[in-house]
Amino acid sequence: MRRFDQYPPESEEETQLHAFFQNLKNGRFTTTRCEGCGKVWWPPRTICPNCITSNLEWVELPKNGRLKLYTVCQREKGVEPVVLGIVEIGGLHIPSKINASIEEIEEGMELFLEIENLEDGRVIYAFSKQE
Amino acid sequence: MKAVVAGWGMAKFGRRRATLRDLMSEALKSLFENTPNLSRDDVEGLVVSSNAPERSGQTNLASLASELINLENLKYITRTEIACASGHAAIRAAWFAISAGMIDSAIVLGVEKMWLPYPEAMLITDMEREWDFPQFWYGRAPSGFALCAQEHMKRYGTTREQLAMISVKNHGNALLNPYSQELRRRPKSVEDVLNSRPVSSPFNLYDCSARVDGASALLIVGEDVAKSYTDVPVYLLGSGQKAIGLSLSVMKSYADWHHLKAAALDAYRMAKIEPRDIDVAEVHDCFTIAEIIEYEELGFCKKGEGGRLVEEGQTFIDGDIPVNPRGGLIGCGHPVGATGVAQVVEILQQLRCEAGKRQIDGCEIGLAHTQGGIATTQSILILGVSVK
């Protein structure tokens, strides 16, 4: 058993969107596209919110995007600040941790997908300046 | 049947040495003390607003609350939850039940226990849990609203100082409110806010509402029985709600909350009033930027001019459109489920001329606004001493 934490369920036993995490492990950043209306959604879905059907396919997103907005967050004294922001990829607004220093962070900058492995085998994405 | 807000009760907000049971008991006792003709037997409805009593390991809070004052004539009992707007959801539920003729009276009770000694409590969230929270758990709501501030400052030229003025105003008002949180120090100037420790840029500590414990209560009754409890019936005149989802991803613009504007139009239309008719407003200042955007979307000023409105002093208690005389979330603290109910306690006191040092002259119409999530859920209530 896993402890309750801040990360999502990722396995096939726990979520119908496990393909996202499997794809991420393979270096692919994906989401769902409705085969009916053609709309690409973030986050990925099990039904199209417009058509209310399950005719969805996995599509690969570019691994780079533009930093639309960001904030430098420092909740405790003496702890390295964390940059959080909205990465715009193909018109989608993707909230993400940004692995960049305060000196180099800039609105509109190009960012690249980064994949981080958690100790228990789960994966999580972030974005950073380096490709 | 028109619904009347006919009584109020408050527990002190703050870091309380008290459990959910203690906090609810305190607000209920206060309601009965302040409403002399109210008897347990009169109460037919009980609606409890709480965002996450699960932090304390407790669900079924409304049943627990009924036990605390031995309510034996209940016909309607429920809990409401839409994050920070839970209090409005409770008031609306009581209002609808009375309007439908199901009950004649209801107690609305808001409560939240935020200060708990175990970190697991922080893993229960009203943010979207599977996609947003894994990324934003460190920054949570302060970082979400910080993005709104970043975009608003860039698009409309809102200044850091204007944000800080919201904090100075609301902390000042809270000093006049006996139920607000106790603070060792309150910012008295823009410099005090700018010199407080950074939290999530552009916010410093005093731009943020604090997580506190608290409870608040209202008695809501049908118009025909209201005179038993009050000489000044305060009517629920109008309401509007909108939601566009929960995730940060659904926001097309972080500085423009079109769905709040739409909810406000619904509320104004229902109450048959316009923004200029509002004598007093309580709005959801979870962070300083929120109050500025709310001025604009509620129609107190033009879009983009919210910063100037506070800078000109117009939203102070002695201004043209006083906002958050109670002290708001920033001044009082923000016990989530209790906040929306406490706002209406303030509007009730203002309309009845019972607000003491916070009293605004000639209040006839008041507005309360709350929101849930990172501004994705919006709720408005309009109250007045006469029906138009």
Task: Provide an overview of this structure.
The complex is a heterodimer of chains A (131) and B (388). Chain A has one domain. In chain A, a hairpin with an 8-residue loop joins β4 (64-73) and β5 (82-89). Chain A has one helix spanning 18-25, and strands at 30-34, 40-41, 56-60, 64-73, 82-89, 92-99, 110-117, 123-128. Chain A is globular, with a radius of gyration of 16 Å. Chain A has one helix and eight strands. Helices cover 6% and strands 40% of the residues of chain A. Chain B is of the alpha/beta class and 388 residues long. Chain B has a domain at 3-116 and 211-228: Peroxisomal Thiolase, Chain A, domain 1 (3-Layer(aba) Sandwich). Chain B is built from twelve helices and eleven strands. In chain B, α6 (160-174) crosses α9 (288-297). The two termini of chain B are 15 Å apart. In chain B, 61% of the residues are buried. Chains A and B meet through β4, β5 and β6 of A and α4, α5 and β5 of B.
Write the layout of secondary structure elements.
The complex is a heterodimer of chains A (131) and B (388).
Chain A: H1 18-25, E1 30-34, E2 40-41, E3 56-60, E4 64-73, E5 82-89, E6 92-99, E7 110-117, E8 123-128
Parallel strand pairs in A: 6-8
Antiparallel strand pairs in A: 1-2, 1-3, 4-5, 4-7, 5-6, 7-8
Chain B: E1 3-10, H1 20-34, E2 45-49, H2 61-68, E3 76-80, H3 86-99, E4 105-112, H4 133-136, H5 140-156, H6 160-174, H7 190-195, E5 198-200, E6 203-204, E7 214-222, E8 234-243, H8 258-271, E9 280-282, H9 288-297, H10 306-311, H11 328-332, H12 336-351, E10 365-372, E11 377-384
Parallel strand pairs in B: 2-3, 2-4, 9-10
Antiparallel strand pairs in B: 1-7, 1-8, 4-7, 5-6, 8-11, 10-11
Helix pairs in contact in B: 3-12, 6-9
